[in-house]
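hi! just following up on the protien thing from before. the input was this:
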Amino acid sequence: MEPRNVAVWLEALRPHKGLSPALDRVLQTLITNPKIASYGEVGDIASRAQVNPSSVVRCAQALGFEGWPALQRELRAKYLASLTSEETFQTRRKGPLGPGHSAFQQDIQNLKDALESVEPAEIDAVIRRIAGSARVVVAATGTFAAPGQVLAHLGSALGYPITAETRGAVHLSAALTGFGPEDTLVVLTAWRPIGDLVRSARLARHRGARVIAVTDLRRGPFAELADHILVVPSEGVSFFQSVTAATSLMYGIVDGLANVDVDRTREQLAAAQQSWEILQTYESS
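and the predicted 3d structure came back as:
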């Protein structure tokens, strides 16, 4: 994505009935200052647009968001996706906390933002869908394969028919063979859309399967393809994206799956313990 596409995206949000002069100045401020808009306080935006802070909030609502924080999260994700990895690396300034604690601090903020971006009811609906599926394929690539593996590994340990496919291409195609209305595809992606994942979601949808997208954009390519979208922040401290919020979400989904049928979960965990002992999986401490 090129920087100008952030402006195109913002313009596409303009309502058909138009905006008042004050709200239009806010929108133009966002278009011409995407970096400042991505990180600035509402007062900074209001000052640049020469409006009251309340006008910034009303502009966000007019563009289809609940308020300024929701718009800023989406805008920041779009802005970061417009940068190359090298540009992202160059814009990151090392803070006084050091690399480790800077990462902790960023992920703490990501988790706080996730509390606002993901509704509990959305998570509950996803848990019900996965629990009731005949087959679940978790598709992810790159670093986002890690939270995908968490869901597949722990979910299968509970007895759910969940597998992960992280290789893409023909492997993903094979995983979706025979997919139908009783099946579910879970896609994990962030930053820029991955062609294999978008096309796989389209294929699954065409075959009547349900699609769940875990992404950092609510208004991305999965908006029309996914039955459920869980938006999690992915901003990192360097040239890469953070998977912390997505991983935490996977833990929550697995916990929900474990509590769908407590008796079944106990049986599955007992069987897993027996398998560990037979296979001598763990060394005695």
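The mean pLDDT is 93.
Residues 116-276 form a domain with the Rossmann fold fold (CATH 3.40.50.10490).
cheers
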